[in-house]
Write a structure and sequence with these properties.
4-stranded parallel β-sheet, binds magnesium ion, binds threonylcarbamoyladenylate, alpha/beta
């Protein structure tokens, strides 16, 4: 994608004035603001209607910049080398001398950090002299955005500007790994857990039930289209939207394919897009056919399970 430099300039101007914009990343779009500015960070929480105790991820362009704010360790170096820039977030110790707004991490001494791969956002980060705090660009607990139009659908004109970067290529949030003590996966996402295990020579598994709420985003009721979702459904109710991953002989207009040949990476990319499409069509509920629980399927099932827990 060609980078539109006047859009980068416009974004910088808004961010320099401590306001927020939508930014593209390869995982999902973010709602971004200067991570060193209390004003910008407060505005993010306000726009997202996000509880103040749910900390934000901060996006960096380089390790050099990260070193101003966080302690780095060997596990970080190994994972950075293999996966960055890319869809992985690290929880690290915050340095006392850091200038990160205390609102980012709710006064805690840890920070979630990420190096996005999307070239438009890398260009933007390279012209800023601060990192960007950016949670997913959706109202709290709603469906994440994977395009500029989705961000508009969530926030309307409340967000001044959305930097266009096309459709997010991964379509699911980053994998979160805590590197504070023993490495621990706090959220499944764009990098499969087995690849992280290979680099760290570990056998971590993800079991959301075992994790005390370290990341409040792990709470249930997340990623929700606001209508009931039933999982592992073989025969859907007549009026339901039906989400599928394998092509049927006959297809009905309430059938929504994440993929037609069980390609789970493709399914992940289409998940939020399909959920948003269904949400905007007034179905009473959603049925989902069984999705294999391996590779990206595990992350998809995790999102759908949470989305199925209506508030
Ligand atoms: O792919 C992504 O990670 C996207 C893009 C925009 O970068 N961002 C994203 O942010 O998903 P958000 O805010 O929707 O999810 C961040 C998750 C939340 O569950 C939050 O609780 C957790 O990261 N988190 C943030 N800081 C943390 C910390 N210090 N310790 C543990 N969990 C943390
Ligand atoms: Mg989110």
């Amino acid at each position: 994608m060609k980078i539109n430099l006047s859009n980068i300039k416009k974004s910088k101007k808004i961010l320099d004035s401590n306001d927020c914009i939508g930014i593209p990343t390869e995982t999902v779009y973010g709602l971004a603001g200067n991570a060193y500015s209390d004003k910008a960070v407060s505005r993010i929480f306000e726009l997202k209607k996000r509880p103040k105790n749910n900390p934000l991820i901060v996006h960096y362009i380089s390790i050099d910049m990260l070193k101003n704010d966080c302690e780095i360790n060997n596990n970080f170096k190994k994972l950075y080398k293999k996966f960055c820039p890319g869809p992985i977030t690290f929880i690290l110790k915050l340095k006392k001398s850091s200038h990160i707004s205390k609102y980012v991490s709710n006064n805690k001494n840890t920070l979630a950090v990420r190096f996005p791969k999307h070239l438009v956002t890398r260009k933007l980060l390279s012209v800023l002299d601060y990192p960007l705090a950016a949670p997913s660009a959706n109202i709290s607990n709603s469906i994440s955005s994977v395009s500029k139009e989705d961000v508009k659908d969530e926030f309307g004109n409340k967000v001044k500007f959305v930097l266009n970067g096309g459709r997010s290529s991964i379509g699911l949030e980053s994998t979160i790994v805590s590197l504070i003590k023993k490495p621990e996966v706090l959220r499944l996402g764009g990098v499969e857990i087995k690849k992280i295990n290979k680099i760290l020579k570990k056998k971590m598994i993800f079991n959301s039930k075992n994790i005390k709420v370290k990341a409040p985003g792990q709470n249930k009721f997340h990623y929700s289209p606001g209508i009931p979702i039933k999982l592992n459904v073989k025969i859907p109710k007549k009026n339901d939207a039906y989400i599928l991953i394998e092509k049927r002989k006959t297809s009905y207009k309430n059938y929504y394919y994440l993929t037609k040949n069980k390609n789970l990476k493709e399914a992940a990319k289409n998940l939020y897009k399909v959920l948003r499409m269904i949400k905007n069509k007034n179905y009473p509920s959603i049925s989902v056919e069984k999705i294999p629980n391996h590779g990206f399927g595990e992350a998809i099932n995790e999102r759908l399970y949470k989305a199925s827990k209506l508030k």
